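Continuing the batch. This is chain 6 of the set; chains 1 through 5 are on the previous pages. Same settings as before, nothing changed between runs. Recording input and output for traceability.
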Amino acid sequence: MACALIFWLLLFTALATPSQGKRLGPTPHLRYSRFLDPSNAVFLRWDFDFEAEVITFELQVRTAGWVGLGVTNRYSRAGSDLVVGGVLPDGNVYFSDQHLVDEDTLEEDGSQDAELQGLTEDAVYTTMRFSRPFRSCDPHDQDITSDTVRVLAAYGLDDTPKMDRERTFVKPIFLLQIIHPDDLDAPKDTIIHDLEITDFLIPEDDTTYACTFLPLPIVSKKHHIYKFEPKLVQHNETIVHHILVYACGNASTLPTGISDCYGADPAFSLCSQVIVGWAVGGTSYQFPDDVGISIGTPLDPQWIRLEIHYSNFHNLPGLYDSTGIRVYYTAHLRKYDMGVLQLGVFTFPIHFIPPGAESFMSYGLCKTEKFEEMNGAPVPDIQVFGYLLHTHLAGRALQAVQYRNGTQLHVICKDDAYDFNLQETRDLPYRAVIKPGDELLIECRYQTLDRDSLTFGGPSTINEMCLTFFFYYPRNNISSCQGYPDIIYVAHELGQEVSDSMEGMMALSNVEWTPESINKAEKACKEAQQTVIIKTIDELVENTTGWIRDINPPPRGPCLESSGGKVEPQDKTPAGFRAAPVVLSGSSSAPLRCLPLAALLFGQGALSWLLATVQAGI
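Output for chain 6:
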């Protein structure tokens, strides 16, 4: 009786669907969206439940054939996961969790970990909606993490899933964006102000750092800047590498005009406290509702230095640019004044990365014990709410680690799949608290297999950087805290006899770079004493020293057992797995005995809908 009831319930649901394909239950609004291809034929929506560790995707493609969505890695399509689905001409749907055996060959996973929520086709689009765990117990499924994720989308013109490179797209996306802009307040009294250079002739050089000094908005009482976004000229978007806005101390004497930031006139490098920053791939950013950048009080900066990094690799002539940062501010005050703290490796002249390295780590230490003395007043706990990670082209991963009393507390932020073309300000899922005396360590991982000479720290895109910017409150006067290793010690460990830092850097060119010498250099950089340079908004500088501590990687959480397929014994990782959260109400086991038949007749998505229906007690 129970099986018959379930059969007619599912049959009625299938027949009641007016369009071709299947819609399984309600479809809640998905907050995030992005086009995945240049012609805007492939559109992705998504949302996630951070606590349940489940993400939902909806892929809409301009095709009447099959569609696929998954995750890939930086180096090869082989091993990518891909959820494939479509609607046959007779209206039946197909849906499968698969992976790429090589660049072109699809194979179905032994464990089906994607749950279908809807698959429809109309005169223009095929739309597939499904959910999956952040981390399944299937080794063929790539994890969804707080790193940059390389989203893979593919489709065909018919219902035979076959990879076609012209219809395959990869886009780096930060999927687990905690705060959506629609969740934040937009004050009604918002005022817009542009900090920009106008009609600047971009030099034909590979790298240009253009700086100018501009006043902040003049207001009669305190206001808060609560949002910023890049202001870019359309045809110059690919040439602008980054834009930084530095607050100037009110005692500074500033030059006029536009000049090279780090050239002959040192005045154009004045002002070192970043207040907002944008880099290639980023978009607008709005601060949380309780923080803002204070302007309009005697303690607030009145002028800023606008720094724009141009990368004109093709040496194009005659390009004029009007680029900058647009800020949004309001008289509706927030609870806290915010600041930005720059951390990482002191860029020049000590930083280096050997050529031909599969992996090379650099470390920059910050010790906060001098913050109060340099701030000129007690420094309250630093509450970090957001961050921006920055390297150049050789960068592959970054992380920021916090230590207290010699013990690692946690990794504040990281990106193990860093992408130079996606540098954006990101929110933390919690407020990280930095107390006086804590140590902060920035680790950057590089790869230089395509280089045959040393890469040095520097401003050019082909040079390197290792930086992290913490967005925090309440504001203090510390602008940066960066470290670098004792290069004399490093050179000695590499067999070079040197007596000062300049000789040490020059001696690196004498080293024969092999996997062994690369490993020795990395080990020496980590073991060497670090010099820590701390700077304030008023250009006060003090040094201290410290040592690099070991980093304990956070353990991976348990994987989620599939609710729609068999978990093979070899799929269970050492971290263990947890059962899918399905609890059936009542004591009768009749619905469970009918599930295989329901899945066979109506598909896995219907089975999932049935489980939810039984759970609700219907």
